[in-house]
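Researcher: Structure for this, please.
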Amino acid sequence: MAFGIRGGAARWIIVAMVFVAIMLNYVDRQILALLKPTLEAQFQWSDQDYANMGTAFQIATAFAFLGTGWFLDRVGLRLGFALGVLIWSLAGMAHAFATSVPAFFAARIVLGMAESVGTPAAVKSAATYFNHKDRQIALGIGNTAPNIGAIVTPLFIPALAVAFGWQAAFLVAGGLGLIWVVVWFALRIKPVALDAVAPAPVPWLSVLRSRETAAIAIAKVLSDQVWFFMLLWLPDLFHRLFGMPQGTLGLPVALVYVMAACGALTGGFVPSRLMAAGWSVDRARKTTMLGYALLVLPVVFVQSVSSPWSAALLLGLVLFAHQGFSTNVFGVTTDITPARSVGSRIGIAAFCGNLGSVGMIQFQAYALAHGWGYAPALAICAGSYLTALLAIHLLIPRIVPIDESERGDGFVAAH
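Model: Predicted structure, token format:
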């Protein structure tokens, strides 16, 4: 039974639904990292097997992004988002029935392909249901969801696996996704951008060829490689540096993602306040992003500290900055792109980001095999955001919101 909700405040229900969906998205994908010691012992995985599974997930997600952003714009937000959550939930549950490395590979590939809907759907939801004034706050709240998922997962998944078996962790997370789909179809909330809800043709090649898409794509490559490196290797880093067993990893890992969640919220709040104070969109965005990029630099000292809590604070600062920076990358995208075609531009950029992250995942496995530890990867992380901001500035010298400079074809020329 569907039910409608009227009024401006009702739009925040959409934020809540997006928040829950993306949180479950990251619960599903992070379970494997947290259960690595258990599954490694049971199935005799090597570090390379684990890295290859991460690579398979990233590649599947990356290539799916080429189509899912367009698909979301083409069939509409309502149906496209629901199908994505349904399929990724079933794929997550399928992990519980895997008994071999190839079976886990298959489950990860389907999970990665379906979860690619999440990012363009979240950004398109903000562009569809919120005006320019409120959109950045909605994006900031929505962008905390991966961090809340990353907090909840280490706190509850290991305990759930110990109490009921590792299979239960996959089944419970996937089952919650199925409940989400039912609630999503029951909601009826009026959008701000009426043309963004219905299916619409999108000039995909025009999006692909634009300098703005190149800027967002480069920023996603450089920032996503840090995020996915942390997501996949963070528990192992604490285990190797501080000898922490699986049962004690939860709290320091959770602290890292609590700080990341705070970063996402500030990523929405800070530029909004600067714009309210009279700053231009361009100045507010780029100044905010520069601040976050500078906060990442101390990550090179992680291996020099003696306490896992000190390391957690340094790594948490990195993900605080990452999420603030990432929220503004999404914000720039909605600034310069009409709501009806946001999915396509974000999909292309996310394809680049996920595919680029494969190199970082494989590099870390190579580094461990050759005794380099985590120092080289941490150095790469330190410089990624300054480089990403430079690319944005060179390709989009002046960010002008679409409602001030919309062209006939729906895209903004470089300024």
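Researcher: Any notable elements?
Model: The longest strand covers residues 3-5. The mean pLDDT is 82.
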